[in-house]
């Protein structure tokens, strides 16, 4: 550390004392001389120290920028939702001429409107957490107006001596498009045939009932009873169509931080009356201090309500459901729903979740298919194990809010 400030200020103090000695014949080595010289030395030392650390910070920032520029993946730093720095890969991804076209602009200029709420919620989580926030997908805009899908992980950092957010990600548009093309080629016709046959079968049954009871109404006095059955069958048709709409409707869900125990407690409270009526007891076992998850609350509630309802229906003579929640491994929360029901044959487990495959007499299989889709969109997995006449265990594995950067595979919706 150079001591230029100390040298200049001490020299000024000494020269001023000599000037006073020459002009006014004041003694040199008085108490004032030592006090002023010490004060000049101390101020100079503080000045030199601040200059030294400022140069170190500037050198560190330059090295930081060089490191970011050397990375092949897009990296950018923001503060208050404005770009402070972007690397060359990010400039290329956004199809800008240079960094100056991006630096200083709001990140909202590059986000498709329906993903704004998702971004705002994610920034709240980033500020709260001191660890990397797991990957999330956005639809973004380039400088030329075209859109693309961007998968990004973020971390709260200090940049330029102030809090900032570092984000690293990748353009997954080609991967999503390629996946869609492959799915369309390999499964489109088969799925359409399967769905068409399933729809025809599922809707034909209640329509046949409706037709029969309307014919009976012409010759019978039990019109009220028959009307009730007709309305029930119409409700069933409406339910089948509704399940299709849930599967087909694309949504940009806003993921918010939630406590998994609170979410499950709400679900169990909702379904408790049905469990009591069916002589089923629901027991819970929650591990203490579980980390938060990032999720769309209503969608996850739909999953757990469906799974608990299935478990209740699998025990026609009553029984026990045990809900166990724990952190199975670092960054992963496990929710297990264990019933003591009839169980599922092993050869049928692999087909669960397919449309119109169900073990229920009047089921469509779409409920469990919806569960698989929602869990997948939450970067999670749904696993089923079962033994006939012993019961079934369904495990939902969900990521916590903090995950290592870019370790998760992108979700294809």
Describe this structure in words.
It is elongated, with a radius of gyration of 33 Å. It has four domains: 4-68; 71-171, Beta-Lactamase (2-Layer Sandwich), CATH 3.30.450; 174-249, Signal transduction histidine kinase, dimerisation/phosphotransfer (DHp) domain (Helix Hairpins, Orthogonal Bundle), CATH 1.10.287; 252-413, Heat Shock Protein 90. The longest helix has 47 residues, at 173-219. The strands form three sheets. A five-stranded antiparallel beta sheet has the order 2-1-5-4-3, with helices on both faces. Strands 7-9-10-12-11 form a five-stranded mixed beta sheet. A hairpin with a 5-residue loop joins strand 3 (133-141) and strand 4 (147-159). The protein has 413 residues and is an alpha+beta fold. It has helices at 4-24, 31-70, 88-93, 116-128, 173-219, 223-248, 260-277, 297-313, 346-349, 366-377; strands at 75-79, 82-86, 133-141, 147-159, 162-171, 256-258, 280-286, 293-295, 319-329, 332-339, 381-387, 391-399.
């Amino acid at each position: 550390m150079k001591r230029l400030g100390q040298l200049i200020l001490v020299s000024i103090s000494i020269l001023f004392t000599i000037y006073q000695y020459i002009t006014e014949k004041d003694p040199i080595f008085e108490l004032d001389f030592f006090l002023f010289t010490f004060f000049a030395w101390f101020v100079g030392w503080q000045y030199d120290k601040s200059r030294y650390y400022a140069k170190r910070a500037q050198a560190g920032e330059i090295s930081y920028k060089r490191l970011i520029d050397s990375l092949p993946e897009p990296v950018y730093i923001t503060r208050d939702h404005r770009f402070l720095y972007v690397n060359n890969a990010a400039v290329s991804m956004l199809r800008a001429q240079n960094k100056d076209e991006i630096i200083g602009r709001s990140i909202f200029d590059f986000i498709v409107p329906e993903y704004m709420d998702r971004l705002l919620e994610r920034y709240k989580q980033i500020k709260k957490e001191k660890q990397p926030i797991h990957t999330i997908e956005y639809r973004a805009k380039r400088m030329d107006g075209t859109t693309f899908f961007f998968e990004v992980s973020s971390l709260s950092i200090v940049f330029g001596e102030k809090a900032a957010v570092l984000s690293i990600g990748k353009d997954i548009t080609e991967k999503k498009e390629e996946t869609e093309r492959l799915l369309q080629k390999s499964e489109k016709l088969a799925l359409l045939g399967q769905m068409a046959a399933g729809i025809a079968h599922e809707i034909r049954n209640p329509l046949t009932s409706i037709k029969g009871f309307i014919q009976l109404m012409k010759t019978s006095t039990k019109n009220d009873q028959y009307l009730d059955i007709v309305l029930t069958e119409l409700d069933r048709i409406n339910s089948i169509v509704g399940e299709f709409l849930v599967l087909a409707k694309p949504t940009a869900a806003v993921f918010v931080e939630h406590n998994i125990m609170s979410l499950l407690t709400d679900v169990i409270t909702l379904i408790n009356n049905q469990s009591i009526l069916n002589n089923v007891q629901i027991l819970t076992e929650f591990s203490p201090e579980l980390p938060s998850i990032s999720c769309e609350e209503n969608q996850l509630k739909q999953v757990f309500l469906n799974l608990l309802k299935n478990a209740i229906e699998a025990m026609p003579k009553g029984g026990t459901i045990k809900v166990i929640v724990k952190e199975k491994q670092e960054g992963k929360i496990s929710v297990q729903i264990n019933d003591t029901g009839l169980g599922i044959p092993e050869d049928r487990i692999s087909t669960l979740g397919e449309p119109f495959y169900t073990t229920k007499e009047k089921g469509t299989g779409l409920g469990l298919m919806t569960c698989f889709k929602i869990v997948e969109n939450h970067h999670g997995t749904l696993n089923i194990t079962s033994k006939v006449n012993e019961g079934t265990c369904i495990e939902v594995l969900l990521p916590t809010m903090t995950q290592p950067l870019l370790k998760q595979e992108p979700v294809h919706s």
